[in-house]
Amino acid sequence: MVSTRGRAIALTVALATGSLALVPATASSAEPRRGAAAAAEPGPGTNYATDDPFTSERTSWFRNDRFGMFVHFGAYSNLEGEYKRPDGTVCRNAEWIMRECKIPKDEYEKQAATFNPKDFDAKALVAAAKSAGQKYIVITAKHHDGYAMWPTKQNKWNLRDHSSFDKNRDILAELKKAADAAGIKLGLYYSIWDWHDPDFPNADTFPQYKKRMHAQLKELIDNYDPDLLWFDGEWDTDNPTNRWSSRDGEELESSLRGLSPDLVINNRVGKRQVADGDYGTPEQEIPEAPVDGQLWESCMTINGSWGYARWDDKWKSGTELTRNLLNTSSRSGNYLLNVGPDKLGRVPAPATDALKAMGDWQNHAGQGAAVSNAGFPGVVSEPDWGVVSRSGNDLYASVYQWPGAGKPLHLTARTPFKVDSASVLGSDQKVTVTKSGDGYDITPSGDATNPAATVIKLSITPASPTTEGSGTGLKAEIFDNDQLSGSPKVTRTDPTVNYAWRFRGSPAENIPDDHFSTRWTGTIEPRYSEKYQFTTVSDDTARVWIDGKLVIDNTTPHNQAVDKAAVDLQAGKKYSIKVEHTQQTGEAYMKLLWSSPNTPQQIVPKSQLSPNKG
Fold first, then answer.
1. Which helix (H) or strand (E) holds 132?
2. 315 is in which domain, residue-wise?
3. 399 alpha carbon, distance to own chain's centre
């Protein structure tokens, strides 16, 4: 994982590129085709946005599962967190031990040759994940030390060819088989930054490294059919110099989607920007609210280290971890909780104990419904006594600070709704619900059911939506200049505003990849009468008008940026909308999303857009 040092990320890095074949997702309209793979080379007319990750079938499992296991396991595990220097002093680290302890390359290779994780048990690892309620596993196939945990054909620096491990075993194949049997998704971590490969830091030879990297990733896809690829090591740094650029990210992501269209990919495939990959990756922290413009997953350690360290006994309690999980799911995020097997491949008992405690909590009285298939509640604000998640028309109030029998818990309503019933999961105590001030008072008659979180289930009737619209999108006028001037070169109907043209794409084949602009006009029809948040993800400029009022105005050329505006709308009414985007040079993006108390964040769908202003 990333250390706490050197996380600054530049938006562009000059880099000589290699000649690698690309299979981008292309579309002439703004409604990308799921799993589309067209021309072998990108260029004008290419849209890299294959779908809307907030709503697509491709990402539905990721959005619903919410809870995964991260596994940091590699040649560094053999040292178990300690390196004894020639002078007798001991340096401590985990997965960064080679670099942070300045272990000479030949000495690191020598210790890796003794690595023998003979006790690695894929079924036991999957069982531990299952017991915790984790629905997917992401394991480090290659970390920053470059050591491959599968029998790669690209080098000998791997578990089969450079270890004391059984040459007939393949732990990734074993894990894939066990995960499939248990109905658990498998993801693979791959570090872009490579401390071992001599071609990596040199500008002249970096293209050769990239070629091998693409080949290794193709091996992983072909041999293990992962559901997810988790990249890391994309940031600008030295020792060794990291030359990865946003252009490299465009190239790699496009290539991977051609190889496996249903892959879910994190944003570290590029430069960790809001439109890179499918989701963001906050590390060792949980955002205070849903992340604007992208899905997200918080990765965290179960103690203080990612890889195994025999001296690290800072184990988090089951209560803390359970609350982390609830905090994450209630903000529409995923929780990727790490374990680090020891040099023999065994997961430490304190880790499995904590995982079991989390699973026991979820399995008790159906409390896991507050996590799986649940997300941001929308209709209520987050209270100071816990969190609230929502699944359909059920709210799950996870209470950390129980008020005591007969004392109320207040919920602030963000939009009108009716509470039909209320109950404490795992208890037959009565729960009284009364309107109070800006929301409801929820009053349980008894005690808390457990110390981690007591869940009160509220079945609600939300405001009634209008019928689904029958729109077809917005009128798009596309110009071959960045001033929206003159006559448009292309006029068409775009089903949605969901574009990632990146460096080499553009809105149409006769529009250059730089210095273009687009104006979308028509009407927008909300499903609910409530306050909507409009969000744009853009590069270089973006402006949005609703009913003639300018609500988003970012005309200073910028890299990937998120802008927001709140607008009160009435269900069934059609409002005029105008969206303008200009592109000068570099990357180009334009996405228009909305959300409301009863509308989860998403690209504004074509059904609610019409190209006609009447």
1. helix 122-132
2. 60-370
3. 27
∠ at Cα 61 (56, 67), nearest 5°? 135
CA atoms within 13 A on the CB side of 464: 2
Beta bridge partners of residue 454, listed in sequence order:
399
Residues 597 and 415 sit within 8 Å (Cβ to Cβ):
yes
Residue 468 has pLDDT above 90, yes or no: no
Residues linked to residue 422 through DSSP beta bridges, in sequence order? 458
**Binning pLDDT at 50, 70 and 90, where does residue 41 land?**
low
Instruction: Specify the CATH number for the domain of residue 162.
Output: 3.20.20.80
**What interhelical angle do 122-132 and 349-363 show, nearest 10?**
40
Q: What is the pLDDT of residue 139?
A: 99
Residue 15 within any structural domain of the chain: no
Looking at the structure, do residues 359 and 392 belong to the same domain, yes or no?
no
In a domain, 158, yes or no: yes
- CB proximity list for 129: less than 8 A, separation 6 or greater: 68, 69, 137, 182, 184, 355
The DSSP-derived string for 544-613 is EEETTEEEEEE-S--SSEEEEEEEEE-TT--EEEEEEEEE-SS--EEEEEEEETTEEEEEPPGGGEES--
Chain centroid offset of residue 90 CA: 37
Residues 441 and 326 in one domain: no
CB 353: neighbour CB atoms within 10 A? 12
**CB 157, CB 150: distance < 8 Å:** no
Tokens matching residue 239: 């020792």
3-state helix, strand and coil shares in percent for the chain, rounded to the nearest 5: 20, 30, 50
Taking the C-alpha atoms of residue 165 and residue 159, their distance in angstroms, rounded to an integer, is 7
Q: Identify the CATH number of the domain in which residue 394 sits.
A: 2.60.40
Asked if 492 and 518 sit in the same domain, the reply is yes
Pair (120, 220) in one structural domain: yes
Query: Partners of 144 in the beta sheet?
Result: none
Q: Categorize the per-residue pLDDT at 1 as very low, low, confident or very high, splitting at 50, 70 and 90.
A: low
Output the domain CATH number for residue 605: 3.90.182.10
Residue 37 in domain: no
In sequence order, what are the beta bridge partners of 579?
520, 544
pTM over 0.90: yes
Q: Which of 304, 305, 308 is nearest to 77 (CA)?
A: 308
Helix (H, G, I), strand (E, B) or coil at 321: helix
Q: Which two tokens stand for residue 72?
A: 């940091």
Q: How many domains does the chain have?
A: 3
pLDDT of residue 371: 98
Using CB atoms within 10 Å of the CB of residue 381, give its burial: 0 to 12 exposed, 13 to 18 middle, 19+ buried: middle
The answer to the question of residue 141 being in a domain is yes
CA distances (Å), 389 to each of 57, 150, 381, in order? Answer: 22, 39, 10
Q: Sign (positive/negative) of CA torsion 413, 418, 424, 428?
A: positive
Cis before 507 (ω within 30): no
